[in-house]
Structure formats: C-alpha cells, structure tokens
Amino acid sequence: MYLAILSLLAVSFMLFQIAVLRELRFQLSTVFTLTPLLFSGVLIFIGLGSLAAGRVRASSHRVLAWSSALLPLLLLPLFAVVIALSQGLIDHSSEVFAYQVGGRAATVGDAYIRSILVAFVAVGLLGYGVVFFLQGLIFALYFRESRESGVLSNVYAVDLASSGFGALLGGALCFVLTPIQLVMVSSALLLVNLWLSRRYLRMGIGLAGAVTVVALGLVAVEATTGSLERLEAPR
Asked: pLDDT tens digits for 85-134?
C-alpha cells in the first residue's frame, strides 16, 4: 500500500511539474535558464514542505488526510493562477529575443528579463509552489510513518524511481496532451490515490466523496467549456 501510494503521488506531481514547465515556456519565455530555475524552485518548495513536516507530530494522519483531500481540488485553480500571473506580469514592450538582421544584432530588453524573473517568482509563490510544498509535507510524513513502523525499512528510493517513471510518462504524454490536459490527468491520479489511502488515513467516506465530486466537476467544466484554454491563448 505504501509503495502504491508513493508511486501514484510521485507520478502525479511529476506530470504537474512537466505541465507547468511547458506552460511557463509558452507564457514567459524559451530562455534556456527557465528550466533549471523551475526545477530549483520546485526543490525549494519540496524542501520547505519537508521542514514543515518536522513540526507535525501527533496529528500526522490528520495532516496527511487533509493534504490528500486538498490536492485534487487545487491543481486546476492553481494552474489558472500560473497562466494569469504570467500573462499579467510579463513585459512585451521590449525586444523578446535576440536576433540578427543585416549584421545588426538586437538584444533582449532589460525590462523583459526583469518581468520574466518577477513573474517566475510570483507564479512560484502563489501558484505551483503550493502544490510542491504539499508534496514535501506529504512525502516527509509518509517516510516518517513508514520508518517508524518498519514498513519501508528495506525499500529505498521508491519516490525517485516513481518520479523517473512519471517523467518518462509525462514526456510521452506531451506528444498527445496539452499542459492543461496533463493537469487533468494528474488530478485524476490524485483522486485514485485519495481512495487508495482513505482507510489508512482514517478519512470518512463523505469527505472523500465530496472531494471526488468537486474535483471531477472542475475537470468536467474544463473539458466542456475550455475556460483554461481560452485563458491560455485568448487570441
């Protein structure tokens, strides 16, 4: 059960991370530094979540239950925040890319570079960072629980192996799915994880059912109305 839960979580988070990376490269820039900045930002938020787990003791099951319940509800709204903040903060008044015409080079504008960095920090703090903070919190609590119970004492790096599989799966799905659709798949996997871990987390069936209905409603609204798609590329 531990292995199944950790694997599903790792794949879900990796799919969301790939979706965010693709979206930011579209909304902000294809500047080569963006990818390592994003991965570094993700690791920072995971680290902060892990540190927060150190403050949780007797109520770890309750924190895990509420975190697992919140995640499927957060992905699509936070992805919308990522898109909206990126579009609102980027400065298109200066040259976007360096190019050369007739031997004369045009450089990237300083205002544009600054707006990329400001937007990148904003979407991290107010958008995707929340998801990866919860990832660090959840994984740290699960690892502590499993270490104290001895369940995973002879199993190592299951989260890394699952993340690697998630990266490969996300890379394959990138050929057929848009970033928004990747987020929808990630939300669906988090719902599967919610039901798989419900009894272990002592979560009532009413809470799990309510989260499922709302999360599937968000996915259905996007699938039928394309609200995020219109926000993503309004023109």
From this structure: 988 887 766 554 444 445 555 555 667 777 788 888 899 999 999 999 99
Q: What is the distance between the terminal CA atoms of the chain, rounded to a whole angstrom?
A: 46
pLDDT digits (tens, 9 = 90+) for 152-189: 666 667 767 777 887 788 788 888 899 999 999 999 99
CA quadruple 184, 234, 123, 74: dihedral positive or negative? negative
Q: What is the SS3 assignment for 55-114?
A: CCCCCHHHHHHHHHHHHHHHHHHHHHHHHHHHHHHCCCCCCCCCEEECCEEECCCHHHHH
Instruction: Kindly state the DSSP code that residue 129 receives in the 8-state scheme.
Output: H
* Contact present, 168 and 31 (Cβ < 8 Å): no
Predicted local confidence at residue 217, as pLDDT: 95
Q: Where are the alpha helices (DSSP H) in 150-199?
A: 158-173, 179-197
- Give the whole-angstrom CA distance, residue 148 versus residue 152: 9
Domain count within the chain: 1
- The fraction of the chain above a pLDDT of 70, given in percent, is 84
Count of alpha carbons within 13 angstroms of residue 197, beta-carbon side: 25
Q: How many C-beta atoms surround the C-beta of residue 212 within 10 A? A: 15
pTM: 0.85
Domain span at 203: 2-232
> Rounded to the nearest 5°, which phi and psi values hold at 101?
-130, 120
Q: What is the spatial distance between Cα 19 and Cα 35, in angstroms, rounded to a whole number?
A: 12
